[in-house]
Amino acid sequence: MKLYNSTNKTIKMAGIVILCGLIFTSCKKFLDVQPESGFTPNLVFDNVPDAQQAVWGVYQELSGDYGYGVDLSLYFQVDNDEMMGPAGNGDGGKKDITHYTVSSSTVAAVLEYPFNQLYEGIERANNCIKYIPTMADFNNPANAANSAELHRLYGESLALRAFYYSNLVKIWGDVPAQWVPAGDLPSTFVPQTDRDTIYDHILNDLQIAENDVPWSWQTAPNGRLSQNAIRGLRARIALFAGGWSLRSNATMQRRSDWQTYYKIAKAECDTVIASGQNQLNLNFADIFQNLCKGVNEYGEVLFQVGAIAGEATFGDSKVGLYDGPKPTTGTNALPNSSGSGGILVLPGYFYLFDSTDARRDVTCAPFTVGMTGGVSTGSVILAGTKLTAMYDGKDRRNWASNPISSLYLTEAWPILRYSDILLMDAEADNEINNGPSTNAQNYLAMVSARGHNNNPALVPVIPADHLGFFNAIMKERSLEFGGEGLRKYDLIRWDSLASRIQETKNTLDSMYANSKGVGLGSGTYSYDGYTISQLPTSVYWKNDASGNVDWVTSFYFPNPSPTPSGATSASWFGSGLSTTFIPYFGSGFVPNQSELYPFHSTVLQADAGMITQNPGYH
Q1: Measuring CA to CA, how many Å separate 75 from each of 40, 222, 276?
Q2: Hey, which residues does 193 pair with through a beta bridge?
């Protein structure tokens, strides 16, 4: 396993070369480390500011193209029953990753480099975890401020390492586990470790970390992990530890003691809720507008991956460029419009939302983004588009601080929101007790009510039985977190990805058969209560004074008569079902194989037999 890439790279933070940025050659000599400068641990971990810089280096590996700037946030998360990757197959890269046609020879930038970057984050964390407790002020009552800060840095390092490992395990399954700096390893080869062992280790680390890191109200909102966030991450990882996963014998299994982990999850969520530190933002759209503008959002967003403007591949984010609504072509085209439109909204998912759910118009973007006038004087203007050319909407150029001329929009990616705390608590409660408590029902209702503009009267009936409540949780999580990189791995831990991929294919086929691929027929096919014959063949829109799309007809009822005056029409279905979705959605998915990705061929070669390829791959 080469860490990050095949070339040596010296990481410099605030003018010093940190130990955590030492270069690793390859896992063929598993984590053989060669210093790139004269800096030693005694110098790097000599004082609090330098120790802080070392921990900032651990955070840094979350970002960039191979982290949550592109790969981990976008392409590893689809296809699922909400959204799919860009149409097409056989590119050896992002299209193959998204549609499950990936192989061990898929281009390194989308399969090998994210794997390597996660391990570089782990190695940086390992150095901090080893050396910070050796610092003179770590347990020095005479300097309480320094001691508290060093304990916090130590806790953050434990939590970040746990988060890196949780990504590796959910994507690749059993992976090499290394808990000390590479230079301390007794052997240069490290074998795979069973994921259950890794989960138990990192859950223990997170329990230690949450006692070293303060609650968010005790610190300035500066983007660092808080105790709230660490408890939330521990809850999420516990649900995965107790959930289903694809094992080396090519079967989906869960641990016999899985309820133990659901109890951990519930206890952590209970503690965060009881703290009163977080709350739901009253306006769902504001959460994502703030993230797109690089504004710190504390309260609802517990943890996010930021982006460093101008750092391109290794620090900035292509969020909002590789996803989000496409740029308009023609007269109102953006001057810098490459990329965008990589994550398509499935037509059936749009109709999972009822007409009163405000989350639909945030999550789904049936429009393109353009501009009028020149770069310096122009303004953003949107143009409506059809159901089969709709992209995810939470990361959008028209919400960014520099929507016109920038390729790198410096948009943050949310890792954990308070609504997830509420829904994880409700889910765990239902599984532990074989049915939901009143609290669990209330938590689900709170999230749904916010989605319906804080109107409790619009909340669907909350089931009181175990299966009904579980299905309601599955649906609510989809409505709440669409496009946020949670759905695919939620489905895996529920052992539902294979069935939902097939159901989605059936939905696409049925929609096409009933709509004849162009316009709507009179078929009886229905999705979540909506029948094809009641849906419009065209929709109509105008631009408001701010250039936004104002839909003047309904998505849920037949075409109006007469046609709205002064409106522009968009053919709602068109031919996209047969040309964009049906040939590509989940086209390579194989049950009991595609739940994990393959190890890249270079990783297997470098590790000389220490890593066994995942089931079904060669």
Answers
A1: 38, 28, 35
A2: 175
Give the tens place of pLDDT for each residue, 299-314.
Answer: 799 999 987 765 555 6
Instruction: Tell which residue, 174, 167, 168, has the closest CA to residue 195.
Output: 174
Cα(338)–Cα(396) distance, integer angstroms: 14
Tokens 């759905």: give the residue: 487
Strand partners of residue 348? none
Per-residue pLDDT reduced to its tens digit, 198-231: 999 999 999 999 999 999 866 655 679 999 999 9
Which own/partner pairs from 225-230 qualify as long-range (CB within 8 Å, at least 24 positions apart)? Answer: 225/155, 225/156, 225/159, 225/160, 225/303, 226/277, 226/302, 226/303, 228/272, 228/275, 228/277, 228/278, 228/302, 229/159, 229/302, 229/303, 229/415, 229/416, 230/155, 230/159, 230/206
The answer, yes or no, to whether residue 35 has pLDDT greater than 60, is: no
Query: Is the full-model pTM beyond 0.90?
Result: yes
Omega of the bond leading into 257 within 30 degrees of 0 (cis) = no
Q: What average pLDDT does the structure give for the chain? A: 87
Contact partners, residue 371, CB within 8 Å, separation at least 6 = 328, 332, 333, 334, 335, 378, 379, 380, 381, 404
Q: By the 8 A CB rule, do 393 and 361 touch?
A: yes
Give the percent of the chain with pLDDT over 70: 86
Quote the CA–CA distance of 66 and 317 in Å, as a whole number: 10
Instruction: Please name every residue paired with 371 in a beta bridge, in sequence order, or none if there are none.
Output: 380
Distance CA 300, CA 297 (A): 7
DSSP tag of 197:
H
Tell me the residue length of the chain: 618
Q: Could you give the CA distance from residue 76 to residue 474 in angstroms, rounded to a whole number?
A: 20
Identify residue 342 by its one-letter amino acid code. Answer: G
For 549-591, the pLDDT digits (tens) are 999 999 988 887 788 999 998 888 877 899 999 999 999 999 9
pLDDT tens per residue across span 96-135: 999 999 999 888 888 999 999 999 999 999 999 999 999 9
CA distance 214 to 131: 21
